[in-house]
Amino acid sequence: MRDICIVGGGVAGLAASIFTARAGLDTIVVDGGESILARNASLENYPGFPDGVDARRYLRLVHEQAQGAGVEVELGRVSSVERIEETNPESGFVLETDGGDPLEVRRVIAASWSDSEYLVPLDVGRIQRGSKHYVNVDEDGRTAVEGVYAAGRLAGEPHQTIVAAGHGAKVGLTAIHDSDVNFYHDWVVPEGYFTGRDRDVPPGCEEIDDEERLERDVAARETILEAFAEPLAEKPTMHPSVDRE
Ligand SMILES: Cc1cc2nc3c(=O)[nH]c(=O)nc-3n(C[C@H](O)[C@H](O)[C@H](O)COP(=O)(O)OP(=O)(O)OC[C@H]3O[C@@H](n4cnc5c(N)ncnc54)[C@H](O)[C@@H]3O)c2cc1C
């Protein structure tokens, strides 16, 4: 049984997965299509990109980061989630996907804007606004069903990329705290930051020396330079109801 399945490999889902995988949870993301962000023409309000970034390029980098963190990404739509033993909250969940084998997991993060039909059998609590359903969560992303969380736009967060990413990260941290992983913060700090004060390096944190820091900077620059080297051929996805003839 895996530790966690994140339904939806868009902005919030991938952000959550980076945190859960880096904390050592066996993490799978099941993604049924493409992020709604693929419809954007130029992402210009995501901190860190002063002149904006092509949304497809951004999504590609987030995918690469998640996979580098050890996340497994499976393509397919999740069609249902049920408890393995209905009356046992510890028993975990079984997810049905179209095409793939059923998945057994301890926890589920729903980050699948705009589909939450697969959660109906669990009765997590959904709110309908217009044609869309949102999943009811507490301030940390927990639903009414223990072990099930929701993140991003599906959880009613504002329709902005940085907010979805931040909420995904926060809900990932909630799932980490609810699991039995020993965790303080996901921090990388200079050598001596903790040990120089006679403290152990807290779980989830890492101390690195200057040589390692410079090596990581070389790798980071190579990745970014390569990612931005060529103009992208991909175009934004148009709204399905726009007549392009
Ligand atoms: C045209 C347009 C332009 C935008 N421009 C900007 C902008 O300039 N700046 C900005 O900040 N924000 C922008 N946004 C908003 C931004 O794209 C969203 O707020 C953000 O993508 C929400 O992230 P999310 O993870 O909640 O959803 P998404 O990124 O859409 O991810 C949801 C994922 O879940 C998957 N999924 C759905 N159902 C299932 C299922 N049953 N099983 C498995 N997977 C499933 C989907 O395929 C998708 O990959 C724009 C949105 C649109 C539509």
UniProtKB/TrEMBL annotation:
Residues 3-35 form the FAD-dependent oxidoreductase 2 FAD-binding domain. The keyword Nucleotide-binding does not apply. One of its GO terms (molecular function) is oxidoreductase activity. It comes from the Archaea. Residues 62-168 form the FAD/NAD(P)-binding domain. The keyword Oxidoreductase applies. Keywords: Flavoprotein, Oxidoreductase. InterPro entries: FAD-dep_OxRdtase_2_FAD-bd, FAD/NAD-bd_sf, FAD/NAD-binding_dom, Ferredoxin-NADP_redctase_2. It holds the Pfam family FAD_binding_2. Coiled coil: none annotated. This is Thioredoxin reductase.
